[in-house]
Protein: Histidine triad (HIT) family protein
Organism: Candidatus Nanohalobium constans
Amino acid sequence: MSDDCIFCKIIEGDVPSYKVYEDENVYAFLDAEPVSKGHTLVIPKEHVDDIHGAADMDYMWEPLVKVSNAVKDAFGAEGVNIAQNNGEKAGQEVFHLHFHVTPIYEGDELDITYNRSSLESGDSVAEEISEQL
Ligand code: 5GP
Ligand code: ZN
C-alpha cells in the first residue's frame, strides 16, 4: 500500500471502481478513460511501481489470461491488445504496475505507432542484453 497511489486507493475501496475480477493477489477494473468498450486494467494488490519490481509476481499470469478471455468474449471482440508501460518516457502515468487489456472490434482501426527499422548487429545487441540477466 502506497499512501499517494490512486490504484492502491482503488484496491482499498477508498476510490470507487468498476470491478471485473478480484482474488487474493490481483484486482481488475474498468479503465476510467477506455480506448474501447471493456478496456480493463489488471493490477497486483501489492504496490510495485512497474514491471521492474514484479519478478516474484508469478500469480499475475493466470488472472491476466482469464480477464483477457473475458474481455474478448464479453462483447465479441476480434482481438485483444495487452499493453504495459514502464516509466514516464514509455507513457506510464500511474506508477502502480498495471496491464491494459484492450479489446479491438470489427471495423476498429488499430492505433499503435512504432517506427520500425531493420535489425542490425543482432549478435552484439542480444549479447549485451543477455549479459544483464
Ligand atoms: P498508464 O498511462 O499509466 O499506462 O495508464 C494509466 C491508466 O489509468 C489510464 O488509462 C487512465 O485512464 C487510468 N486511470 C487513471 N486514474 C484512474 C482512476 O482513478 N480510475 C480508473 N478506473 N482508471 C484510472
Ligand atoms: Zn499503488
Remarks:
- The domain at 6-130 is CATH 3.30.428.10 (HIT family, subunit A).
- The chain has a mean pLDDT of 96.
- The longest strand covers residues 99-104.
- Strands lie at 19-22, 26-30, 40-44, 79-83, 99-104.
